[in-house]
């Protein structure tokens, strides 16, 4: 394998909230890469992003950016329904991709991506499940893998957002938000999720009309563990992601750290992050740096297209369970050899 000495030329597709944050990250924070091109169907937005970076071109069509000789790799940060077309275009050109979650918005299209990559016979995709790069989650994984608390019996997870943006729907609570717990469950336990249930308490008065928020989502895993996830996307007070693992010989918790703590004026306490860009800033930095480092060495690692597909399959069962309230089995295709 050859090492690419020149900085990796990255095309960033989608320059909205995440895309523009990744553009800043590649330009100012990490090493070994440069933003060679940006793409947005909103041409003004693409141009505004490109104008801030020397030698960066602006495009409205992902294929045009990928055709540029300056582009060695692609970071997809457009909305989920646009991912499949961009991924297949990158495959046709043999370009490595860091694709924001979800890999694709449903299990069927995610499986098409898996099958297309399997036909290539080599991995090109890393999926943006950034929690795997978070220092606390990594410590927890190390503890569980090392048997520090014995066999894991349960995970108790909390996922709270301050408020939902306009257009946020009930299925998005699973597809956009709980998808992270789906990935960390599979990663921490090394087991597939086999069934999902969803319980819906009376909604908070802060939820937009028609949104049943919060919800309690339950997973069963192939090894017999049970996982509960409180998803509460209009909690109002902060961004909180917690996980407690219950093992045969102990428990372990992450997500409590609030950094600086101040005692003054008759009170004690610290601050709560307000969104994911703050809480997971270091994880996103590590994720993108790791992708760049591996890509320059000629390989792909991290969460795979199979992980993206498996998460989409669990999401599909989860959205069905939201409607029926019943226990819904997860249907998973056979895992291609590339991902074993
Ligand atoms: N890992 C995380 O924690 C995290 C957090 C937020 C969002 N995301 C993911 O990042 C992606 C983008 O989310 P966002 O919040 O930045 O959305 P956004 O709406 O802020 O930005 C999306 C941008 O993509 C552009 N766009 C739409 N269709 C396009 C296409 N076909 N080609 C090129 N550009 C197109 C839009 O004009 C917009 O500028 C989504 O997949 C989302 O799930 C991940
Ligand atoms: O798209 C976002 C993002 O994935 C965040 O990490 C998650 O906390 C939000 O709930 C979701 O809406």
From TrEMBL:
Residues 141-326 form the Gfo/Idh/MocA-like oxidoreductase C-terminal domain. Involved in the oxidation of myo-inositol (MI) to 2-keto-myo-inositol (2KMI or 2-inosose). Homotetramer. InterPro entries: Gfo-Idh-MocA_inositol_DH, Gfo/Idh/MocA-like_OxRdtase_C, Gfo/Idh/MocA-like_OxRdtase_N, MI/DCI_dehydrogenase, NAD(P)-bd_dom_sf. Residues 9-129 form the Gfo/Idh/MocA-like oxidoreductase N-terminal domain. Transmembrane segments: none annotated. GO terms for biological process: inositol catabolic process. GO terms for molecular function: inositol 2-dehydrogenase (NAD+) activity; nucleotide binding. Keywords: NAD, Oxidoreductase. Its EC number is 1.1.1.18. It catalyses: myo-inositol + NAD(+) = scyllo-inosose + NADH + H(+). HAMAP family: IolG (MF_01671). Belongs to the Gfo/Idh/MocA family. This is Inositol 2-dehydrogenase.
